[in-house]
Design goal:
2 copies of one chain form a homodimer. The first copy, chain A, is about 30% helix and about 15% strand. By secondary structure, the first copy, chain A, is of the alpha+beta class. Chain A has 2 domains: about 55 residues; about 160 residues, Nucleosome assembly protein (Arylsulfatase, C-terminal domain, 2-Layer Sandwich), CATH 3.30.1120. Chain A has a 4-stranded antiparallel β-sheet with strand order 1-2-3-4. In chain A, strand 1 and strand 2 form a beta hairpin. The radius of gyration of chain A is 23 Å and the shape is elongated. Chain A starts with a helix and ends in a 42-residue tail after the last helix. The interface between A and B is large, with 45 and 44 residues.
Chain lengths: ~250, ~250
């Protein structure tokens, strides 16, 4: 066309070489994805083993989630009692019907909040179009227990307990709102779970979040203060009333 | 130790599983690196072919570098005349003597600025320690032509030509300062060249920098205004006096 004639250049040759380079780049990308899948499969039995072990540690996931400095801001104190019943957190690759993505599933023991045993959130991309589809499970809240409704009565027995005073808790949405919303973009909560927590949950359980501001760095395990002021990070005082009341 | 006894938990089992998962992650990472190297080798002949083609297009690398919206801020107008002589830009993986990294080499035609035919900058990491070693080639400037010295007389015949008026050029360091400095961290210039330009130089040559602010998006090819106000992005007006005076 005009422009090319003006500068008196034919770029066909260059474009052909770039196409060849691009084809190799795409091929590499595909192989990387395959390799990644292969290793996901290899890791699966280990993830399952880890899930089993973690489910036996009282409040493992509650403490782990709360020790992620960014994620914890999406959990309000009313969620704590409910998340004490979270026994299994699982992150699975999804790859079916031309869709690819991640499924986050949360399995709870019998609890006074909702009837579901398992709730999930799933982000899937259409491999052709790239379109994102978000799927979530509706939560069957028990009467008066819906934590996503502002002012919902969260937990009777915990009322008045002086935990996590520092937070302006009224302004923090419930973690369970995540299961309500079908975002257009992948949410940071999913990313934090997959990229941070899932890679080393024990690190977070122990409170070693590298990205933390450092304030809580020396908050050790085993400080089982009965009821004290030390629970800001969802610390170990929850150990006492943990892990029972279920199945 | 104390803490673990307190919470009455033995995390050995969990740690062992996490170690196994980590080992697989490391293995995957290694394979990814291998795959990447394999494809770099496959691409090499194509890169060489591309280099040959580009070297025949007048001012190819000058225009390509200038059309990178971030990189262009590291090139001052006095550099232009020198970069017209840049015939080959090459990016090569370096992997020897336990060091791994990238070598950027710039081959020039005979020019009035320096005696080197080739100048390079190299970033290498020690595979064991992770330590970064930066290596650069000294430029043998001809008398009075050192573009990295402020106020150096860049080019006689271009003086007074009204190109690229918009820039407060005195405040922009010469691009060639990059070859002086041995940064502690890898410089953005290297990243831009490797991650952006090297992946699709033709795109940049044509002025299709996705990251651009959009102002110059409709700046087409072939607008060969003699000397006009349209040259802000190192556009095509340089075509006229391009590609001679060398070899």
């Amino acid at each position: 066309d005009m422009a090319e004639e003006d500068v008196d250049q034919d770029f066909t040759e260059l474009q052909e070489v770039e196409d060849k380079i691009r084809a190799l780049t795409d091929e590499l990308e595909e192989k990387m994805v395959e390799l990644d899948k292969e290793y996901s499969k290899k890791k699966r039995p280990l993830f399952d083993e880890r899930i089993k072990i973690c489910s036996k540690i009282p409040n493992f996931w509650l403490n782990t989630l709360l020790n992620h400095s960014e994620l914890q801001e999406y959990i309000n104190t009313s969620d704590y009692d409910c998340l004490r019943h979270l026994k299994i957190l699982d992150v699975q690759d999804v790859d079916q019907d031309g869709m690819q993505g991640t499924r986050y599933s949360f399995t709870f023991t019998k609890n006074p909040f909702f009837d579901n045993q398992m709730i999930f959130k799933e982000f899937k991309y259409n491999k052709e179009s790239g379109e994102l589809v978000v799927d979530t499970s509706p939560i069957n809240w028990k009467d008066g227990c819906n934590l996503t409704l502002k002012g919902a009565q969260s937990s009777k027995e915990e009322k008045g307990k002086g935990k996590r005073e520092a937070t302006e808790d009224n302004e923090v949405q419930s973690f369970f709102c995540w299961f309500d919303s079908r975002e257009e973009t992948e949410s940071p909560i999913g990313d934090w779970i997959r990229e941070d927590i899932w890679k080393d949950p024990f690190k977070y359980f122990c409170g070693d979040d590298d990205d933390e501001d450092g304030e809580e760095d020396d908050e050790g395990e085993g400080e089982e203060g009965e009821d004290g002021e030390d629970g800001e990070e969802g610390g170990e005082e929850e150990e006492e009333d943990a892990g029972e009341g279920d199945e």
